[in-house]
Amino acid sequence: MCILPSIDLTATGIRIAQLRQQTGLTVRDLQDIFGFNTPQAIYRWQRGLTLPTLDNLVVLAAVFGTTLDAIIVRAGAADQTRSA
């Protein structure tokens, strides 16, 4: 039986917040970039309640100057994110 990888939502949310802060952006800045009426989606991403859609992940990677792999944290790899 093959064990499939999964995404750690909480650690991915922490990573999104870290990358946002490292690039000097505010939640409001991201809200404006995405054209969202409210910042709730971004807060949900950062809290690990939801994941950005694939197209929004691509935009985040471009805005943060990184790759999708650097944003998404696989389950079991969360310790690396918290120490990053």
Structural commentary:
The protein is mainly alpha-helical and 84 residues long. The protein has a single domain, classed as Orthogonal Bundle (434 Repressor (Amino-terminal Domain)), CATH 1.10.260. 61% of the residues lie in helices and 0% in strands. It has six helices and no strands. The chain has helices spanning 9-22, 27-34, 40-47, 54-64, 68-71, 78-83. Helix 1 crosses helix 3. The radius of gyration is 13 Å and the shape is globular.
Task: Just name the CATH architecture.
Answer: Orthogonal Bundle
- The number of helical segments is 6
* Uncertain regions spanning at least 5 consecutive residues: 80-84
Helix content: 55-70%
Compute the number of structural domains.
1
Major beta-sheet overview: none
List the helices and strands in order: HHHHHH
Q: What Rg do the Cα atoms give?
A: 13 Å
For this structure, what is the CATH homologous superfamily?
lambda repressor-like DNA-binding domains
The fraction of residues in strands falls at: under 5%
CATH fold-type name: 434 Repressor (Amino-terminal Domain)
Shape: globular
How many strand units?
0
Report mean pLDDT, rounded to a whole number.
92
Q: How far apart lie the N and C ends?
A: 33 Å
Please identify the oligomeric state: single chain
Secondary-structure class: mainly alpha
Assigned CATH class? Mainly Alpha
